[in-house]
């Protein structure tokens, strides 16, 4: 009996790509099946060795060294060198970890706080004028708990323009639409509509935002942070 690994919903993934054409999706997973139907040699991303090494080296050096250098231009230059798309007047502050930096996209005037986790293993798109506070975790998938090999299930996340994610929130794979707000310490486990305010564990709707307020310019970029 073949035990096919679970995959992200292709309809939802297509909607995310349509909403964020800049979303960079990694190559599809690949695997070999054993005679008993179990999965062997699972590869979450079907990439050549050279590309894998570049991505892994870039990730390790960033997380161990570069993220702690207190100069924006050094950190930004390093990220661009290893494939990150990052717009004008945006910043990723000290101590933020990134997984699979090649598949991270950040728009213009976006500020990402200190000690965040940006898991881009399935593709992570963050739009323009987004504010992500410190200690936020954005997760790139989960595991198939009903599969005997406990295989990963990568699933991309899209965060549209003018979203605010407050401190210590956790964002599971989802689509957060324009102008939405995620309260501090909330856990997002499903899509959020435009200008909707959510909070709690799991996050639920607690209010609406005035769409006419989305006229400001983001890009908070303090020195040595």
TrEMBL record:
<dbReference type="InterPro" id="IPR011004">
    <property type="entry name" value="Trimer_LpxA-like_sf"/>
</dbReference>
<comment type="similarity">
    <text>Belongs to the transferase hexapeptide repeat family.</text>
</comment>
<dbReference type="GO" id="GO:0016746">
    <property type="term" value="F:acyltransferase activity"/>
</dbReference>
<keyword id="KW-0808">Transferase</keyword>
<protein>
    <submittedName>
        <fullName>Acyltransferase</fullName>
    </submittedName>
</protein>
<keyword id="KW-0012">Acyltransferase</keyword>
<dbReference type="InterPro" id="IPR051159">
    <property type="entry name" value="Hexapeptide_acetyltransf"/>
</dbReference>
């Amino acid at each position: 009996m073949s035990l096919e690994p679970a995959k992200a919903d292709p309809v939802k993934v297509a909607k995310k790509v349509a909403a964020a054409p800049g979303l960079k999706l990694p190559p599809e997973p690949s695997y070999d099946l054993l005679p008993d139907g179990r999965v062997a040699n699972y590869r979450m991303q079907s990439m050549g060795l050279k590309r894998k090494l570049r991505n892994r080296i870039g990730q390790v050096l960033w997380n161990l060294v570069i993220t702690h250098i207190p100069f924006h231009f050094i950190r930004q230059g390093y990220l661009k060198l290893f494939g990150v798309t990052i717009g004008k007047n945006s910043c990723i502050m000290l101590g933020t970890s990134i997984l699979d930096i090649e598949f991270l996209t950040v728009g213009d005037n976006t500020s990402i706080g200190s000690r965040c986790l940006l898991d881009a293993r399935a593709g992570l798109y963050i739009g323009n004028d987004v504010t992500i506070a410190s200690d936020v975790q954005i997760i790139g998938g989960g595991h198939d708990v009903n599969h005997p090999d406990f295989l990963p299930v990568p699933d991309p996340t899209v965060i549209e323009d003018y979203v605010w994610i407050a401190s210590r929130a956790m964002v599971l794979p989802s689509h957060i639409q324009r102008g939405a707000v995620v309260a501090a310490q909330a856990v997002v486990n499903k899509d959020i509509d435009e200008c909707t305010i959510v909070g709690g564990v799991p996050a639920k709707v607690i209010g609406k935002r005035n769409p006419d307020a989305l006229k400001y310019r983001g890009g908070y970029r303090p020195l040595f942070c």
